[in-house]
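Many introductory courses stop at the sequence. We go one step further.
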Amino acid sequence: MLGPGESVHVRSDGLYRWGTVWIPSKALIRYGSALTGASFPISRIGHRWRPRPAASRRFRNLHAAAIRMDKVRPQALIDAEAAHGLEQQLIQAVIECLIAGSTNAAHPSARRHRETMVGFERLLRSQPARALLIPEVSAALGVSERLLRSLCAEHLGMSPTSYGRLRRMSQVRSILRGGEGNAISVSEAALRNGFRDLGRFAVNYRGVFGELPSTALRRRNAVNDSSHITASSITDLP
């Protein structure tokens, strides 16, 4: 559970399914107080809850039902009464999980480390096309290079440099697979995201994604050509 305005950096070691429920803090306090008959304070510090099985099951079922309804019967959510009823059930399920489960707050040092990783992500996002050097990253975050390396190994499973390169490589992949279609070449996409050695970039790209960047671009172009032909054929019908 995250408090108002709080960010978190999370790493999974395998296949995961993530789900979120956003509830205004005032509404959560109001409903929590009404359901428990007592004050229902919300900490501004992130907590990890482990609900009881029955409460967790009810919450997951309602969450899944809301997602299914949005996909299969989105018109039902337009009905204010139906949407309000589902919302009430979800909020109640969240509160049941919070009051019927165990929680642990992160140690102050762990919170600081988490905030450092959130800051690292923000720094990379603010300069997406640059290969940031470890000294400038550590200086910007106010931590030692040793601590930065240690936190990245713990939270990301790789060095800061490797993670930044993987992130920029993923940006290139996104462009080649659909971001700008035929309007950009592999070399332009790579250079735009901070890769200067195009030969090494292609080798590393294939090592990560299992194909050359040119293959991804050709596949995108083939899809665009096919769509254009189909659209033209339909337009030419009498």
